[in-house]
Amino acid sequence: MKVGLERGRLNKAQRGELIHHLPVGFVKGSSGLPQFDPDESAQQAIRDFFELFDRLGSSHSLFRHCATHQTCLPFRDINDSEIHWRVPSKTYVYEILKHPLYSGTYAYGKRKNYRKPGKATQKKHLLPDQWKVKIIDKFPGYISWGQYLSNQARLRENNNRPDRTGPARSGNALLGGVLFCGCGRRMSVAYNSANSSSYYCNRHSTLAETRSCECTITCQSLDAFVTTKTLQALEPAQVELSLRVADDESMRRQQLQKQFEYRLERSKYDVDIASRRYRSVDPANRHVASTLESQWEAALKEQEVAKQELATMKSNSSATISQPERNQMIAMCSELNELWKCEATNIERKQILRLMVERVTVSVQDRSQSATVIVRWSGGYESCHAIARPIQTYVQLSNYQELIDRALKLTLSGMRSPQVASTLTQEGFKTPRNQEPFSGSTVTKVLNDNALAHQQLVAPELLENHWHASTLADRVGVPEKVLKHWVSKGWASAIQRPFGRAWVIWANEAELKRLETLAKSQTGQGSPLPSKELRTPQPNNREIK
Question: In the chain, how many domains are there?
Fold first, then answer.
């Protein structure tokens, strides 16, 4: 018997005649089938509702707009011919957007019941292809079927799931939801502080036996790059964009004024109904007359409030845009960069970026400073760019080895750390984190952190005819300080002479004999200047310059 009843319901649904409850904006006709609400203000309210969703982009934003501006919808109770205007709840806003009847489509079996162990039964919305019955354009609709599908795709993308874009929110990360790692996974956002955030790939933390992509980049640098490219793409359309903004603002004002006018008309109608009811009652029936009089007074107060709200709205902004206001909007839109920085909110910036950009993919090359950014624009075109991302350590610099070699060479030549830092800055080297000039302490730290450079400075490997300054001084028979003084005066050849570190001096057999003779000639105070032959070192190709 149960199977037969279900089969009968399905047969009736396949004819589009199984109607249980109609959503707001529809009434049952004489045949029992859905038709538009005969009240034109009710129809206009539903159309404005869907236009607001197109502009705002999410059900939550639409609900907040309705609550803030007291945007009411025409509700009708069951078996009640009167319209009750009230602000929809957040749940009902979502249900209206999900209901296919607004596109003129009859649907049966849109939801499926499921139950988890130990929990109550829940309902899940199915995709249109999974409905048991779907008859497109069966009834009159407020929107088209294509627009309905677009709205459903938008609602699905607004879900907070790893595989969804999510709605545009007020966070500083402008590319959240559309940014992907080179491995194909959507990148997450980490807010370290109010002004510091970064994108990162957490694929290794969710998949077993997966190596970390180590793809991390600060939001400020990547957002600035993609924003620059987007504004450059919008530059040819600045005039069209400015006119579109002016037209949209004019339409928004007209819709808002029309809502207040409808509200005033409804209040006048309520006053007229209350007045006729009061006048038709028998004066002898005091209790009924008193109640009707109170209703009449309440309707008059509501009418007065509606008049004041309409007058306030007209005084604050007219329904049409004046020519000075229009010129001001066009002038503002002509300066896209200033408008983007000063006027737009983070939510508006994200909405603009998502209209222009479908997907951004970032690949980092071996944890280095170099990164590749692929931007897929709306329409399918892809552009590839190479950028330098901010990094945390010197090792990640693309020119790290060049930096070490240059700093070490300058240090071995006898320059002190501040002098080395000044030379590196003049040659264009920057610190990795803040891209600032080098300091003396920074140079010392960089060289100490590099194992090979540190060994070269502290305990260098000696080649043939190479001597430590202390060892050679003992061999020649002079203090180490005197030997270093000879190097400074050009009387001896130094392989390296870093300040405060290990000096290496070149000396073969002939050079040793010359240095020993030079040492004997300089004994005692007031020693005469040695001959040019004793003051001239032997030729050495490895001497530092």
Answer: 3
